[in-house]
Amino acid sequence: MNSTPEEPIDEAGVSRRSLFVRTGAAAIGTAALAGVAGCGSTTPVSESGGGSGGKGLLGDPTAGGPVDSAGIPLARRDYPVTLPRFQDPVSASAKPETGGVFKIYNYADYLNPDVLKEFGKREGVEVKVTTFDSVDEAFSKLSTAGLEFDVIVSTPDQLSKLVGRKLLQPLNEELVPNLEKNIWEEIQSPFYDVGSRYTVPYVVYTTGIGWRNDKVDVEPASLENGWNALWDATSQRGKTQLLDDKREALGMAMLHAGQPNINTGSQEIVNLALAGLDELAKNVRPKVQISAYETLPAGRITIGQMWSGDLLSGAINYLPKGTPASVMSYWYQAEGGPVFNDILTVAAASKKPIIAHRFLNYMMEPQVAYDNFVNYVGYQPPQKSLDAAKLFDEGILPKSLSNAVVTQEAYAAGNGYLTLTAEGEQTWEKAWSKFRAG
Amino acid sequence: MQKRRIWGFLAAPGMLWLGLFFVVAFYAVISVGLGNINTLYQPIPYWNPLDWNFGYLVQAIESVIPGGQNWPVVVRSVIYITVAITGALLIGYPVAYYASRHAGRWRGLVVVLLILPFWISYIMRMFAWTNLLAPDGYGSKVLSALSIDSLFSSIGLLDGTDWLGGQGITVIIALIYGYVPFFILPLFASLDRIDQRVIEAARDLGAPPPSSFWRVILPMSKPGILAGLVLVALPMAGDYYTQTLMSGSPSTSMIGNTINDYIQGGPDKSLGAAMTILLSVVLLFFMLYYLRSLRRDQGEVAA
Fold first, then answer.
1. Positive or negative, the Cα torsion across B189, B190, B195, B200?
2. Eight-class DSSP state of A233
3. Residue B4 CB contacts under 8 Å (≥ 6 apart), including other chains
4. Which of A69, B157, B274, B291 is deepest in the core (most CB within 10 A)?
5. Looking at the complex, does the CB of residue A134 fall below 8 Å from at least one CB of chain B?
6. Which residues of A touch B72 (CB under 8 A)?
7. Interface contact flag, A433 B258, Cβ < 8 Å
8. Angle between the B168-193 and B222-238 helix axes, to the nearest 10 degrees?
9. What digits encode the pLDDT tens for the residues B194-247?
10. H helices then E strands: how many in chain B?
11. Per the CB < 8 Å rule, is A433 touching B268?
12. Rounded Cα gap, residues B165 and A313, in angstroms
């Protein structure tokens, strides 16, 4: 059975096309399950499995809207989605597991080691962090290598894939009371996970342009399209950065080209973005990496696309002696630019689900979230009690970088990278690998 | 007879170890590259050769021929590797020659110095250079004081003065620097084996030193040169971290980077595996050429 690469099949040998036909016909809850389990599965979906509520498609007889590669409807701000549950959450009355290693899968330098140590002491476990460079890499390793983690840090655009692949377990809300108590109301039941069935928010961020104002004389805010500052930085050739993340890189090129929909699967717009990146590569020859938090303070790059937390984390941890934080500046597109949050989830394979829930809850404690933010990662937690403006006034964080925190208003009005259809994802991926080939 | 059995017995665990880990790993790569993907774009390996699907291999071949998406990467890799192994030869041969024949009482020290680079891992040596060659690093300052950077940029080898800013020349120099010890050692061993009496015979028969070098030593060291070149060219072909650390720009990415991107990044793992198969086949071809010329040389020597 030599099938062409154009028509992928699932494990059970069903072509993707026929699967999609079924996806369209069946209730989405079942289809989501079929997308995961293949044609062998005729298990009826239980009441809790289907998901419901919101304006989401699940259980909606008018089903047939766009779905991701796992068969789950695409969540949008005006189209909230309740994710299906394939198992019951762990019981709140269960005893916490004791001893052993507690494993977290995360970006590098994205959790304060002191905070982790304190958690380990509190729960009597040894906390171990394994790192990934991109969420794509994380997903592919999780889904093929059968890695066993307890907590996985990820992004909302990966969520439905992780759920569809049964890599996550549903949360028991009783075990994460801090979500309701401490977190911004906007993210208590987010549109990408109505009812917070699988996630709690970790930190909020914006994506923008960071630069060394002692080496480059630019002011993106004064430009009609601020992203031009990067495209115009020809004098900084080779000392620029592009995020090593296909969504962020191509999405920025879309915003630069005046295309506001950064979640489109349109071949035409993706091609436009690719042309923009090619032009960027020609003009300013960026390094494709995510280490600006270290290379910008060190001066190895002078301007680049980066995340807001890179600036604050750089100012907190990586400034060379004698370099003041005021040499770093940041701009982000306030209207329609990426303003979003990362998520904490509990792995389906976790052997310590109770401790994992407790970790999520722990990270949402005001003091812990504060320590993690101000003393290490530089990304701000969406805590009700945290007054970021005060931190700058009091000089705890450098005032020149006050726009590197995310206000609640900016978050509510912001854009974000969201799940694409399977075809859309393939379109982006093709363009990205074409760009990476130089 | 008895002796042979003992050695066979002793070698068995090692052979089994190497065989198992090479064969299993490589077969897994083949099964993924000639397999398929599921609806989530995760690879499904086809373990049974009867099921093999050559679609991805065809796609990989199409991408590396002129006009294909990865054609520029192939051209770039070939240029980088060719220049780098030529550089390794020009730098390494005199060193190996000196160490084996003229080092005299310094010989022991020279051999230790040749092994010294192996004490520090390749990647750590590259990391050191990322700091030294940074715009305000000591290395850049020295190169700038000696006007080497302006010399390089005046002849078009360097664009600007930033060594780490996505420069092909930096990647090539780093490849030479990183791999030259691996070239020198086998060459040293081969030069060291040349019988002194053969050279003396050449002199006795009236060959002046240059002529005895060209007509005796160089031909006799050919297997060593070939072994050294193969030993450095093969890992260079799959190298991706040198490029990542010294440049990080798509304008200098090599074939190893492309495979890494496919396998680590997104939904094209099967294509990445197919590219790996393709690369292995090409390298195998060079390896066979090496083995053939080695046998031919040995034949000549024996005759």
1. negative
2. -
3. none
4. B274
5. yes
6. 437-438
7. yes
8. 150
9. 888 888 898 899 888 888 888 888 888 888 898 899 889 999 999 999 999 998
10. 15, 2
11. yes
12. 24
Q: Which of B38, B76, B251 sits opposite A9 (nearest CB)?
A: B38
Q: Closest Cα of chain A to B236: distance in Å?
A: 17
Q: Which of A6, A11, A433 is opposite residue B38, by nearest beta carbon?
A: A11
Q: Which domains, ranges and CATH numbers included, belong to chain B?
A: 74-265 (1.10.3720.10)
Chain B positions touching A16 (Cβ under 8 A) are 39
State the Cα–Cα distance between residues B195 and B221, nearest whole angstrom.
11
Give contacts of A140 with chain B, Cβ < 8 Å. 42, 264-266, 269
CB contact under 8 A, A238 and B42: no
The mean pLDDT of chain B is 88
First-to-last CA distance in chain A? 35
Beta strand pairing call for A339-346 and A151-154: antiparallel
Q: ipTM higher than 0.90?
A: no
Q: Is A285 at the interface with chain B, CB within 8 A?
A: yes
- Please list every residue in chain B whose beta carbon sits closer than 8 Å to the beta carbon of residue A2: 51-55
- Amino acid of residue A153: V
- Cα separation, B295 vs B223, in Å, equals 9
First to last CA, chain B: 29
Q: Kindly state the tokens that stand for A159.
A: 């969520």
The full set of domains in chain A, from first to last, is 1-79 (no CATH), 101-203+339-413 (3.40.190.10), 205-332+421-436 (3.40.190.10)
Phi, psi of A264 (to 5 degrees): -85, 155
Q: In chain B, whose CA is at the least distance from the CA of A19? A: B39
Element (H, E) at A203: strand A199-212
> Would you mind telling me the total number of residues written for chain A in this entry?
438
Chain A nearest CA to B98, separation (Å): 39
From B160, B166, B266, residue closest to A136, measured CB to CB: B266
Q: Which phi and psi (to 5°) does residue B232 adopt?
A: -95, -30
Of B40, B70, B262, the CB nearest to A161: B40
Separation CA A72–CA A160 (nearest Å) = 6
CB atoms within 10 A of CB B252: 24
* One-character DSSP codes across A15-82: BHHHHHHHHHHS-HHHHHHHHHH-TT--PPPPHHHH---TT-STT-TT--S-B-TTSPBPPBTTB--P
Residue B119 C-alpha, separation from nearest chain A C-alpha, in angstroms: 27
pLDDT tens readout for residues A339-376? 999 999 999 999 999 999 999 999 999 999 999 999 99
* Angstrom distance (rounded) from CA A169 to CA A164: 11
Closest CA relative to residue A162, chosen from A175, A152, A147, A171: A152
Contact residues, A window 149-168, toward B, CB-based 8 Å cutoff: 161, 164-165
pLDDT 10s digits, A54-85:
333 344 433 457 888 788 899 998 899 999 99
Q: Is A228 on the interface with B (CB under 8 A)?
A: no
Closest chain A C-alpha to B136 CA, distance in angstroms: 8
Closest partner residue to A285 among B55, B165, B270, by Cβ?
B165
Residues A287, B38: C-beta atoms closer than 8 Å: no
Q: How far is B151 from chain A (nearest CA, A)?
A: 19
* Whole-angstrom distance, CA of residue A288 vs CA of residue A268: 24
